[in-house]
Amino acid sequence: MLTKKTLINTAISLSLITGFSAYAETFNFTNKTEKDADTLVVFQAGEQFSDDLSRLDKLSNQQVSKALLLNDFKGETNQIVELLMPNGIDAQRLIIVGLGDDKELNAGQVNKLGAAVTEHLSQYSSTDINILTDGINTANSQINFAAELAHGINLRAYQFDRYLSKKKPAEKSYTIQVTEPDTASANYKALSAIEQGVFLARDLTSEVPTEMGPVQFAAAAKELKKLGVKVTVLEPKQIKKLGMGALHAVGRGSAEGARLVIAHWQGNDEAPIALVGKGITFDSGGYNIKATGDSISRMKSDMAGAAAVLGTVKAMAIQKADVNVVAVMAMAANMVSETAFAPGDVVMTAEGLSVEVLNTDAEGRLVLADGLWYAREFYQPQVMIDVATLTGSKVRALGKRYTGLFSDDDALVNELTISGLAVDEKVWRLPLAYDDLLKSPIADLKNAGYGGPGATTAAVFLQQFTGDTKWAHLDIAGSALAAKDVGITPAGGTGHGVRLLSHWIMSQDK
Ligand code: BES
Ligand code: MN
Ligand code: ZN
């Protein structure tokens, strides 16, 4: 029998500081071998038994190895075998999870394993889970494995259940056995801050459009004041007064109008990193209404860029990170109404460039034009990254698993590419060109570069508003709202971009 031992552990109980849904698993890290739990999880790379598995096999009088044989278990990635009431083992359920080649596992893959554990356990009411990580030999070390595993478990356990009459089952409590519990716990604490940022972005994106307009989004941003974030909200009058005619025009279609929301985490005195988010709380297309297909029904997620940059600021503030990050979020509902802007209108941006609105459905670049200008004008950032569900063209080119990356700065492209691989939010560079297609006969620019590649002509439009500031554009169209549960993302708002940006910001040289 396994002996019961007192746990010397560090408990991390996560509670949301703000949010709409309650969701938080509890993680304890301990260096003691086992504790009683109704469920025991072990990992196994390949067919050569780990120390954990050999011991359990012995205890069970070879029941474990027989079960693995009968199930053709080869220790491959995400292969799962389950034993109920195993002989000699103090658990009602033993779960053996294949790791594949454990030396090759990076953080993103360990997160996915955690998600597979969550997915498997979600069918059971069991809430008391013990995870053994002895003998795990990843590129990251066992400690990082434990922290990244907990991260993956929790990212997948999240659920937006506000509108479900049947709420999610009870939260689960995990004890993860690891040689250095304090380090694992500290590592997980940093990841849990990022989770809170992801969860905020998911909440905001999943919320229905009538409940998440520019005003409600601004109110959600103001919640971050509790964490020491400076939050400023500009109303339509102020937006107009500052000359941000493009943002103002898109906002005119809804009664509340546009908002510019600024959330600043000033963790040091260096020039800030500016993150600019597209915040269209619903994109009907305007008078160029989205009349074909069902894409309009997903357009509550057209503020996912704004949600991602706000989530990133939250992640930095929770950690009290030594970084200076300002999120500028250009919020508007792109609606049809008698006050809405019309195809053919010419709007004036704060940059001083006039824009002919060929298509009211190309509204993202309009609000971002003024958002980028504002970030430069008021914050003189060292670097500026905008995040936007900008074009259907990006979805056709790259699908939802890659973010479109546009920048003239090769070093910045490399950094973002590396961060994307590290957290498994991959980016792919596309060309920044075809600015000649934006010429208009009656204004400085037009807002649609018909005949050119859509994601690129949108990006090159944005570039006109970046001045001399180092800049990259991330087109996350298609990646913001998931139709079904996959890996670390449950169906609904994905929070895509928070983990990428957080990783990139935290790896900046100081
Ligand atoms: N919000 C859409 C882009 C989008 C499409 C996001 C699919 C997520 C999934 C954007 O405002 C838009 O409508 N873009 C148009 C621009 C065109 C009219 C020049 C597009 O890409 O079709
Ligand atoms: Mn649109
Ligand atoms: Zn849009």
Protein model, in words:
This protein is an alpha/beta fold and 510 residues long. The protein is built from 14 helices and 20 strands. The strands form four sheets. The chain has an eight-stranded mixed β-sheet with strand order 8-9-11-10-14-18-15-16, sandwiched between helices. It has a seven-stranded mixed β-sheet with strand order 1-2-7-6-3-5-4. Bound molecules: ligand BES, manganese (II) ion and zinc ion. Residues 280, 283, 302, 363-364 line the site of zinc ion.
The average pLDDT is: 92
Biggest sheet overview? 8 strands, mixed
Name the beta content range. 15-25%
Put simply, the count of helices is: 14
Q: Round the Cα radius of gyration to an integer and report it.
A: 24 Å
What distance separates the N and C termini? 52 Å
* Morphology: elongated
What's the arrangement of strands in the largest beta sheet?
A: 8-9-11-10-14-18-15-16
DSSP helix fraction: 25-40%
Q: Point out poorly predicted stretches.
A: 1-19
Instruction: Give the strand tally.
Output: 20
Hetero compounds: ligand BES, manganese (II) ion, zinc ion
| Helix/sheet category | alpha/beta
